[in-house]
Design goal:
Shape: globular
Largest sheet: 8 strands, mixed
Helix content: 10-25%
Radius of gyration: 18 Å
Strand content: 25-35%
CATH topology: Glutaconate Coenzyme A-transferase
CATH class: Alpha Beta
Number of strands: 11
Number of helices: 6
CATH superfamily: Glutaconate Coenzyme A-transferase
CATH architecture: 3-Layer(aba) Sandwich
Structural class: alpha/beta
Length: 232
Amino acid sequence: MNKVYDNAAAALHDIRDGATIMLGGFGLCGIPENSISALKEMGVTGLTCISNNAGVDDFGLGLLLQSRQIKKMMSSYVGENAEFERQLLSGELEVDLIPQGTLATRIQMAGMGIPAFFTPAGVGTEIAEGKEVRAFNGKQYLMEAALGADFAIVKAWKGDRFGNLVFRKTTRNFSTSMAKAGTITIAEVEELVEPGQLDPDDIHVAGIYVHRIFQGTQYEKRIERRTVQLTK
């Protein structure tokens, strides 16, 4: 099976209007920049996007929000995007805000084939509306369903032609779980190598989970919020 594609447009060719897409990254760290740009160029609309963050106004998923291609966002933290806020308050955008740990675990469960789990997060709040609550050892827990997607799109540091992926430091964040939870998983990598060039002990996502892979270009790797000051 040939998993290698020439570029993002080729790898994402069958994403249609109304698709549900997971996109890896944390803030702007480790986001699939090439794939987001390709989605914008493709003009697909009505997307449901599952991502911890919603990008910023002019970068990341913020680009798809600007072009009104996203119908619904399922996220944990969205505080850096003014356009997201405007669309939410005006009723243009459906939003499902999910506690960060719950979001991560729902994705992990989908990758493991487990349909649901119980968590104390959200008990007694609006998040619990319509969901089963059960007591374990005298404490209330909320049942949350696993969360999968039609497509999972992640960005890795290195990958080989079999789809094995290596991430750098915190860029693995949600990406390793999302890669296992998509019906079709697409990986863009900074460096595409031949099989055998990756140390098996360094591989974070096995190629069995990855259906398509391509080498990305011109990564900006923008910093969302600088928290340290550089000195000479």
